[in-house]
Specification:
- The complex is a heterodimer of chains A (113) and B (298).
- By secondary structure, chain A is α+β, with helices and mostly antiparallel strands.
- Chain A contains five helices and three strands.
- In chain A, helix 2 crosses helix 3.
- Chain B folds into two domains: 57 residues, no CATH class; 201 residues, no CATH class.
- Chain B is built from eleven helices and no strands.
- In chain B, 45% of the residues are buried.
- The chains are: A alpha+beta (113), B mainly alpha (298).
- At the A-B interface, helix 1, helix 3, helix 4 and strand 3 of A face helix 2 and helix 4 of B.
């Protein structure tokens, strides 16, 4: 599994998070997710591109085409709306993580009399 | 810049799978950059070029899966042409022809009444009434079938609210059409409902088409005809009656022929708009994809 299944629904956040550092092409975004997660998040690479396209369509990213070593390359960057969305998703994730930690952290629950 | 044979084969397969997209070339170019860059990096570390390509392609995923990921919509469907959408397109062509036929019949009979009221008034009334009823039970349901095809083509999944609304409207229209054919006189015959039953398919088709145009599907200039059909038809009908064009119908004290003449523009414009959009839908090559994406990134 299990890490990959837990990822479902959070890929947008990961992509936005990687792009916060600066514009990058799809391959670099995927490599960034892999590297930052210590190889724990090894996504099916081809399925990340539809996510990038969807985020661009939603106005959270903007892309532009250039040429590198004779190849066409599409580079993505965060828009102001994307930055705002990243901030919101980050806060939501922090609350979620704290709540999960509280539940599974092993802290003793007051016993019923 | 190195070209890698296995990668090129993969790109050809993916290109075929996403050919229905307006941005298919860009998708393939973007994937090509990824695959060649990744392969070059592996080769630079000493990996055999063939082994490097196998590893890169494995990591990227099967072209079928990737194509489905590109097509899968948040609404649970996959936005690709299928046999169903093609069939809906063919039904839409039939519906478009019917609308055109009815519009032409209205136009001709209304014009005939202008020329010789006493000779043609009766036949004009029959054409208007039975044409209306036939349109309710034939052309309108076929139009809704086309709308359903367009919705599925746009990625509507089972339980989609628009699909349900389309089915409901089709059912209501057929029921009232059948009541009309049965000769049961209801107050609705002289009220707003007949107009609503005729306006609804064009309004729904326009709304759906405009949603699809936002979803990277080709925009057709004729889509505007669907949108403007009834505003133009009703406007012309109202204007000609206001200007007292043609003979006055003594029984209703209205200029019915003028109304029919202007109103015929509605079905004619719907017919042309629907015909063009349905022809596009019917001619798309169905994609052979395995099913909605379940990949983690979606």
């Amino acid at each position: 599994m299990k890490v990959q299944q837990a990822l479902k629904g959070h890929v947008d956040l990961l992509v936005l998070g990687v792009l916060e550092a600066g514009p990058a092409h799809g391959y670099a975004v995927i490599e960034g997710i892999k590297a930052r997660s210590g190889e724990a998040f090894d996504l099916p690479e081809g399925t990340v591109y539809p996510v990038l396209h969807r985020l661009e369509k939603a106005g959270l990213l903007v892309s532009e085409w250039g040429e590198v070593s004779g190849r066409s390359r599409r580079t993505y960057a965060l828009t102001p709306a994307g930055r705002a969305a990243l901030g919101e998703q980050r806060s939501a994730w922090a609350r979620f993580r704290a709540a999960v930690d509280d539940v599974i952290g092993g802290a003793p629950w007051p016993s019923t009399p | 810049m190195n070209r890698h044979a296995l990668v090129e084969d993969y790109l050809a397969a993916l290109g075929w799978q996403v050919a229905w997209r307006r941005d298919a070339e860009q998708v393939v170019a973007e994937v090509a950059d990824h695959l060649h860059t990744a392969t070059d990096r592996l080769v630079a570390t000493g990996v055999n070029p063939v082994a490097a390509q196998h590893r890169v392609l494995h990591a990227f995923g099967d072209p079928d899966v990737v194509a489905v990921a590109f097509a899968t919509t948040p609404r649970g469907g996959i936005a690709v042409p299928t046999r169903f959408t093609r069939t809906a397109g063919a039904l839409g062509v039939a519906a478009g022809l019917w609308w055109l036929l009815w519009g032409a019949a209205l136009l001709v009979t209304s014009a005939a009444v202008m020329v010789d009221e006493f000779r043609y008034i009766e036949v004009a009334g029959l054409v208007a009434w039975f044409g209306f009823l036939a349109t309710l039970v034939v052309a309108v349901p076929l139009t809704y079938a086309t709308v359903a095809g367009l919705l599925v083509r746009g990625g509507a999944g089972a339980g989609d609210r628009w699909l349900l609304a389309t089915g409901l409207l089709a059912g209501v229209t057929v029921v009232f059409g059948a009541i009309g054919w049965a000769g049961i006189a209801l107050p609705w015959e002289t009220l707003w409902l007949p107009w609503l039953l005729l306006l609804a398919p064009a309004a729904l088709a326009s709304a759906v088409v405009w949603r699809l145009r936002r979803a990277q599907l080709p925009a057709l200039g004729s889509d505007w005809l669907l949108l403007l059909a009834w505003p133009v038809g009703l406007g012309a009908s109202f204007a000609l009656q206001t200007w007292h064009v043609g003979p006055l119908d003594a029984s209703t004290l209205t200029y019915r022929a003028a109304g029919g003449l202007g109103g015929s523009l509605g079905p004619l414009l719907i017919g042309i708009g629907l015909l063009a959009r349905a022809w596009w839908l019917a001619r798309e090559i169905p994609a052979a994809l395995p099913g909605p994406a379940t990949a983690v990134a979606e």
